[in-house]
Amino acid sequence: MAEEAKWAADSSGALEVTLVDERSEELANPRTPALRVTGAWKLFGHVTALADVSLDAYPGEILAVVGDNGAGKSTLVKSMSGVYRLDRGQISVDGRDIARADPRLMGRLGLSTVFQDLALVETLDVATNMYLGQPLLRWGILQQKSAMWDGAADTLRDLGVRLPSVRIPIGELSGGQRQSVAIARAVLANNPILLLDEPTAALGVRETAQVANILQQLRARGKAIIVVSHDLEFVFHNADRVQVMRLGAVQGVRSIKDTTREEVISLITGLKSDDNDGGAS
Amino acid sequence: MSNDLENALATEAAGAGDSPDVALSTRPPIWNRVLHSRVTSISVLLILLLVFFAITQRETFLTFDNMVLLLISSSVLFLVSIGLTFVLLVGGFDLSIGALMALTTFILAWLVNQLSVPIVVAMALTIIFGGLLGFLTNGFLIGRLKLSFMVVTLGTMTLFMGLVKLISGGQTIVIKSTWLVDTFSFGKVVGIPIPVLCSIAVFAIAAFTLRYTLFGRDIYAVGGNQKAARLSGINVSRTVMLAYGLAGACAAFGGLVAASRTGSAGPTIGDTIMLQAAAAVLIGGTSLRGGSGSILGTAIGVLFFGVLSNGLTAAGFGTQWQQTIGGIIIVGAALADKVQRDGWASLDLRIFTARSRRT
Lengths: 281, 359
Description:
The complex is a heterodimer.
Chain A: H1 2-10, H2 13-23, E1 35-44, E2 47-57, E3 61-67, H3 73-80, E4 88-93, E5 96-98, H4 103-109, E6 111-114, H5 126-130, E7 137-138, E8 142-143, H6 145-158, H7 175-188, E9 193-197, H8 205-220, E10 224-228, H9 232-238, E11 241-246, E12 249-255, H10 261-269
Parallel strand pairs in A: 3-10, 3-11, 6-9, 9-10
Antiparallel strand pairs in A: 1-2, 1-4, 4-5, 7-8, 11-12
Helix pairs in contact in A: 6-7, 7-8
Chain B: H1 3-15, H2 30-35, H3 38-56, H4 64-89, H5 97-113, H6 119-144, H7 149-168, E1 173-174, H8 178-185, E2 188-189, E3 192-193, H9 194-212, H10 214-224, H11 226-231, H12 236-262, E4 264-265, H13 273-283, H14 295-314, H15 319-342
Antiparallel strand pairs in B: 1-4, 2-3
């Protein structure tokens, strides 16, 4: 299985799609995935964090990755964003295989990650944080501060984020506001793929709704969005597909409209595992 | 899904874009910032101190000559403190700056006396040497090899002190240059002594760098959240190495000014400077945790201690008093900082835990 997936990823785009079509009856989707992971393995000592995991994310779609603690969700996120290097397996962006992923390279190739801890600098202001990885510069060394203030304000306004100013330090914001800034930073990068790790874990009802609203806007703009979440309410209200992980492997991939919460829960808990096929659906 | 969330979602979806409170300012909340800034409180304290000495020592304190003297005597501390600010901002500390400062004065003496290098070139080389030393020892060990800054700088401090003793044999060495003392140390340009001008220039460059350049932003980002900085593609090790390099260069510059006062390199030249600089930087509002603070704060911190020392000396109090009062002020500043941030209620004033808690 792993070998087949690897071979599929190494082949040309056309062949890849044919192979995927053969494997899954549901997939009549001729599009190239914006992000594809095939046959991913990651071991930490004796612990197998990822075992032959595959994942496809398509433009204009929200893919939720769910699973219990220790299911391998965070490892998968960190592998896709380039923080961890896979022991085996392949990551490809827009049909292009990535030899050695690292966060900067993945950013350049079109993937923005919103980490669970948000990776914001509390002592810096909102605008500086939003441009942390992509500063606007004059002569290569000077920050174009006013352009960054305006750009940050435009992006946040566009997403309907409520903040008093783009020049207050992150440390003075609420959890929801910080989450919004972290997402806005990813939006500002204008990358086609957005990866979010537990974006609603620390948020209240209203703030969760705001994040959902932002994600729907981005989906409408044709972004490929991957959301790792514990929150099934959030997933069922917002995602198009759900990929269930259990003990480092893919337990099943379902279209939200064709599944029920009960089925997803039974996949999460391991009561059901009928299509443990490596994941592409 | 709860009804609450569904309602909230519907509300959000309907009104997100045109809500009136979405208006986002690109201006800083200035009064809030000024009122809660440590720079403000230390500035107020500095002004009160100035007023106090101006009233109590009307004839001697607020004279032009005394002010110039105050600035000259503060310039060594000022230069060293600026370098230390970079290190604190990046989330570290440098115990070795005093020893490095002493070492660089002997490098200057060696360049001038033994190699007959022209004094201006020798001074430039000394500053470069200090920078490289900080960059390659402290910077490399802490930034690249990720060793603990306390252990590393304790080690390099001991090492530099040992080297100074080896080179000097405990003796002061006269630097054979009249230019160093006559022109550099006591010369003036438009009435301002050259060491003071040097301090002002370094201050301006450092403040500009931190505020407007990408490197300055990297310093704050690395000090504020190293992991986030790394994930954003900032070269964390290089930033840390450069910060220690700058601390070394500034310490060497301070050493030059100190050596120029006496015209000699001395083994005890940087003995107390590290603690004084730490006090000035911290009282100026730069955080020991990294990521927050400013060069302006450091400048005011240095001036504060300069004024305190100058005024107390003029009033007949010796260094023992200056040290005692300085110590109280540092602890007081830490306390004030806590109260300003978390309020009076956050202070748990019990010295012993209440007995009832354990039972």
